[in-house]
Amino acid sequence: MFLKKEFRIIFMGTPEFAVESLAVLLQNNYNVIGVVTSPDKPAGRGQKISQSAVKTFALQNNLLVLQPVKLKDEIFHQQLKQLNADLQIIVAFRMLPQSIWSMPRLGSINLHASLLPNYRGAAPINWAIINGETSTGVTTFFLKHEIDTGDILFQEGTPIEPDDNAGSIHDKLMIQGAQLLSKTVNAILNNSYAEVPQNQVQSTIIHHAPKIYKENCNVNWNLSARTIHNLVRGLSPYPAAWANFLDENGCLHPFKLFKTRIEIDNHQFEPGKIETDEKTFLKVAVKDGFIFIEDIQMSGKRRISIQEFLRGFKSLGKMKAV
Questions:
Q1: Which domains does the chain have, with CATH numbers?
Q2: Region for residue 29 given its phi and psi (left: phi exceeds 0; alpha: psi -120 to 50; beta: otherwise)
Q3: Which of the chain's termini has less CB crowding within 10 Å, N or C?
């Protein structure tokens, strides 16, 4: 058994999701001796140099920050060796080479935003909602060669409510995951844990969660209302589902969808047919009903409600969603 102040931890992470975990570790007085995060890079319209959310938080708490461009860089390896960590914790970071994750005497653990072995990959929150799952969760596990395949330490589930989207589930799992991570580190500190190989976990169908690309976000109006609605939920607020309005002159008007609702109806309209009163609602026909668009963003504009959109965009009844 080790005292917290003697137990040396290196934390690796980049986005906001990882900040909560780092904050909880510090709140629980764990000895975080260094933080590894992504290099600063240009961001936004002005391309100003921006630092990661984890770096911002780490500097505010006077933590040592390392920002390797290449994880196999020899100087970075030497820096890690000199820190002499007992454990490395990885939350929403890059894929590590074995020379890095195996360096600490107790290895490296990862927090993943799904109930492994389901939804291994870069976008577990998005794909769980896109696929219409009604529950998800968080998992801590030891790293090994293949991504997201290490032995499970702890898991906790959470429901996906009908009104949840990727943003709300992200925030729920960010908080839940941070607490589970603290529980995991405490168990390792006290040598009071068991490892469960993922092939021993009962699961009917294993879904994967690869990185989201633009083509994954394109709405196909020939699909069912529920499928399209789940796509919108699973990509909101980022990167957002997208489609086009085709006007009577053959011009395409691209837009993003952030919020929808569905109406199941046995209609005779062609998929993509737009129905609107041009004041309060806009709905698009799909094979088994309608998709009501509630929050929308046209190219180069801000996100607005459909009512605000209809006040400035006329003749939609003559257009088609494609």
A1: 4-200 (3.40.50.170), 214-321 (3.10.25.10)
A2: left
A3: N
